[in-house]
Amino acid sequence: MPLSEHEQRMLEQIESALYAEDPKFASSVKRRRLGRSSSGRRRLQAVAVFVIGLVLLVGGLVVEVRVGGFPIISLIGFLIMFGAGLMALWGGEGRSSGGDQGSGTTATKKAKAGGQKRKFSERMEDRFNRRFEQE
């Protein structure tokens, strides 16, 4: 069921408030979404590695190199395919911006973050209450 226009506007307001309150957290959440964290180049590399794994998987059954009665080349192919899938899903997370360095102590930063979260949650609660008062 698609969202109504009002719900879409509310979601956009929540997203923009999140970016305003804590842009570092918002960008890290956006970057970690599955399927969106990888660039096109990274996905292309993952597809190429997946195809190599598929060739090894099928080729291992044709060549019949067995260790203890188990087709070891096919196992290696499967593991390569699995790794390619992981690379496609979570390939872009390893990058860091180095934005943790700055002025102030960590206790001060935590206190500020806690205050911002409280204000944000209060505003979201008010908006939620207003929404049901309108209907």
From TrEMBL:
Disordered as annotated region, ranges: 94-135
Bilayer-spanning residue ranges: 44-63, 69-90
Ranges annotated as biased composition (Basic and acidic residues): 119-135
Signal peptide: none
Record's compositionally biased regions (Basic residues): 109-118
Pfam families: DUF3040
Entry-linked InterPro entries: DUF3040
Superkingdom, taxonomy of origin: Bacteria
Coiled-coil regions, chain positions: none
Assigned keywords, A-Z: Membrane, Transmembrane, Transmembrane helix
Name of the protein in question: DUF3040 domain-containing protein
Source organism of the structure: Gordonia sesuvii
Lineage: Bacteria, Bacillati, Actinomycetota, Actinomycetes, Mycobacteriales
